[in-house]
């Protein structure tokens, strides 16, 4: 059975053994673990006021700035410079914080930023704001570090290895228009 829940709820369900797997994230803290192979690899972006931030200089533009994201979606470790991190419940709330000048950047996957803009009720001039790539990461299934969790992880990893080896995984990514992760057999 599949259940859609916020990230923190997903972590709680896996930690308590009420779910076998959460999809997906780039870090796991004990008693959780990541599967070996990512389900997805992609860029994450930032939304910001161009006048307030100035010329985009890549990740360096984030240095010591306030960065907001949805609870459980990112961590300070995702950024290569020190930031002032804040978490909020929704992407719309994060976008609103930038629009109201209460945060410098809203970070998310581009599709979520676009959704937040569509749902937004605060008037703003889109020409005054920018969206740039802030970094890249892989998104792995998250499982409990337990006998059952290890069995599920092994089933997933072995299945992925077989699909990769037989060349059957790449066509699936192409069919759905997703970038193919840089898989390697280690």
From TrEMBL:
It comes from the Bacteria. This is ABC transporter substrate-binding protein. It comes from Desulfovibrio psychrotolerans.
């Amino acid at each position: 059975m599949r259940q859609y829940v916020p990230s923190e709820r997903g972590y709680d369900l896996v930690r308590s053994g009420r779910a076998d797997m959460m999809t997906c994230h780039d870090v796991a803290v004990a008693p959780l673990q990541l599967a070996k192979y990512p389900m997805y690899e992609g860029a994450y972006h930032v939304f910001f006021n161009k006048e307030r931030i100035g010329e985009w200089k890549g990740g360096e533009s984030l240095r010591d700035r306030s960065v907001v994201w949805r609870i459980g979606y990112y961590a300070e470790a995702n950024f290569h410079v020190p930031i002032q991190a804040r978490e909020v419940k929704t992407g719309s709330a994060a976008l609103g914080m930038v629009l109201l000048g209460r945060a410098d950047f809203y970070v998310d996957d581009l599709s979520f930023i676009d959704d937040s803009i569509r749902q937004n009720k605060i008037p703003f001039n889109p020409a005054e704001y920018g969206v740039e790539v802030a970094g890249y990461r892989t998104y792995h299934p998250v499982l409990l570090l337990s006998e059952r969790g290890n069995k599920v992880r092994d089933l997933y990893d072995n299945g992925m290895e077989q699909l990769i080896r037989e060349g059957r995984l790449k066509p699936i990514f192409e069919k759905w228009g997703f970038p193919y992760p840089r898989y390697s057999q280690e």
